[in-house]
Specification:
Helix content: over 70%
Number of domains: 1
Order of helices and strands: HHHHHHHHHHHHHHHHH
Largest sheet: none
Structural class: mainly alpha
Distance between the termini: 37 Å
Number of helices: 17
């Protein structure tokens, strides 16, 4: 029997839905978890610097909103373009899918150059605005200056990797981040500590830049090679106004999620600086690090479902789309429940991964329990938004990205501490937003997307307002 071509092998209209989703979700989840190691390992090592661990950890936490902004622009192109490619693949229009991918790549390069220039020019006022003090600024400045030289690497590796996974090459996409993370883990102690180069926080940034550069090279090597179903072709690497609008419209969900995360981090750091000082900014750095670890499997499961949902939607196989949404939702709840239990049962152990100073432990344990108390409802927001994005329903996905963080979380982060809750109010604000925002998004998805799909028969034209 002849071997299956990549096109046939990655036909998501065939075979078991759970197997199709898990075939992408497991490597994508592993990739998401490993991707966290880029910054997580930096924070673990810096939390153990002799004599300055507290300030170094807080300093790197102040840079997190800038990193989130860079990731937001990468996601704008990646999460906006990859689902459109999946839909076009389902329709059998590979050339249009390649044009979208080329357009996304050109947009990534442009945005990367602009972001590098903006943050390098206005670095000092931005870091102070984001919560730096005179004691922590040197650490934040040292890390950020070197990190920004690798912005283009971040944009390419993070923004183009979804186009690999969208073609069904989940393991290849996983290797993109595994490669960078392994190199980062090896280089960090060499560059940071005195027994190596002894560069301190600058060494952590340099290790990250080198790692991301290798990941970017890997992504380009694959997308330019013969193994890819959809390839980066030079004639398609240019900006087209209509395609850019489509990519941006759909990518705004992931963009807004990262940008609002950045906004909330800035508001949290500024508020905690007033009500708790540098100590609580350090605690929030640890909690945000753990949130990244806890939340990445949720993202990975749902990102694995998106190509399957989009492909079958493009092929007008609505029964398979509904099954994909149900399966992804069940996975999300299961994983979120597990990680919630870990956070509630072992908060001190989790904090000690980063820092074991008694003041950090005393402040961090109750804060962590409050922050993650309603983690399961928050994960439902990801399940709902994933379905919206997978089926090119951009407006709903964007609305709920903004609703939880901007409408609920950010205002409460300022109001609750001022009402007498102090630093604790910052963590309570997050828990409230998780409950309200998560349930609102998931219920809306069920009523406005999943339920109408139940009335469509396979092969029928979708409603005009849903058409890509």
């Amino acid at each position: 029997m002849a071997a299956l071509t990549p096109q046939k092998k990655n036909d998501f209209s065939q075979g078991s839905i759970p197997r199709n989703i898990m075939g992408l979700a497991l490597p994508m989840t592993a990739a998401q978890l490993v991707n966290v190691l880029y910054s997580l390992v930096d924070r673990i090592y810096l939390g153990r610097l002799p004599g300055s661990s507290h300030l170094a950890l807080t300093g790197i936490g102040i840079t997190m909103p800038i990193i989130s902004i860079i990731m937001a622009f990468a996601n704008l192109c990646g999460t906006g373009g990859a689902p459109l490619c999946s839909i076009d693949r389902g329709k059998g229009d590979d050339e249009d899918a390649e044009r979208i991918m080329g357009n996304a790549f050109a947009l990534l390069l442009l945005l990367g150059v602009v972001l590098t220039a903006v943050f390098l020019i206005w670095k000092e006022p931005i870091l102070y605005l984001f919560g730096a003090s005179d004691a922590t600024f040197p650490y934040a400045d040292g890390y950020m200056t070197i990190y920004l030289t690798g912005t283009l690497f971040v944009m390419i590796s993070l923004g183009m990797n979804p186009f690999i996974s969208a073609q069904g090459f989940g393991r290849t996409g996983m290797f993109t981040v595994v490669l960078g993370a392994v190199v980062n883990i090896v280089l960090d102690p060499i560059f940071i500590f005195d027994f190596g180069l002894g560069m301190g926080i600058r060494g952590a940034a340099l290790a990250t830049v080198i790692s991301q550069g290798l990941s970017a090279i890997w992504v380009l090597w694959f997308l330019l090679g013969k193994r890819a179903i959809l390839r980066l072709r030079l004639p398609f690497i240019r900006l087209n106004l209509n395609q850019t609008k489509e990519i941006v419209a759909l990518g705004l969900s992931g963009f807004c999620m990262n940008m609002t995360n950045s906004l909330v981090q800035v508001v949290c750091n500024a508020t905690l600086k007033v009500y708790g000082g540098d100590l609580y900014v350090g605690v929030m750095t640890i909690i945000n690090s753990l949130r990244e670890v806890f939340f990445m499997p949720v993202h990975g499961m749902n990102n694995g479902a998106q190509p399957v949902e989009g492909y079958n939607y493009g092929a007008r196989l609505y029964g398979r789309v509904r099954e994909s949404i149900r399966f992804a939702g069940a996975l999300t709840i299961g994983y979120a429940g597990f990680f919630w239990a870990v956070a509630m049962l072992f908060p001190e152990l989790l904090i000690r991964i980063f820092n074991s100073e008694p003041e950090i432990i005393a402040a961090g344990v109750p804060a962590l329990r409050i922050y993650f108390a309603l983690f399961i409802p928050m994960s439902l927001q990801t399940a709902g938004q994933s379905a919206f994005v997978g089926l090119s329903r951009a407006k709903q996905a964007i609305f709920f990205s903004l609703f939880r963080k901007v409408v609920i979380n950010a205002p409460l982060t300022v109001i609750l501490p001022a009402l007498g809750m102090g630093a604790t109010g910052v963590f309570v604000a997050e828990a409230i937003s998780q409950l309200v925002g998560g349930l609102a998004c998931f219920v809306t998805m069920c009523l406005t997307l999943y339920r109408p799909l139940c009335f469509l028969k396979d092969g029928e034209e979708p409603p005009a307002k849903w058409r890509h």
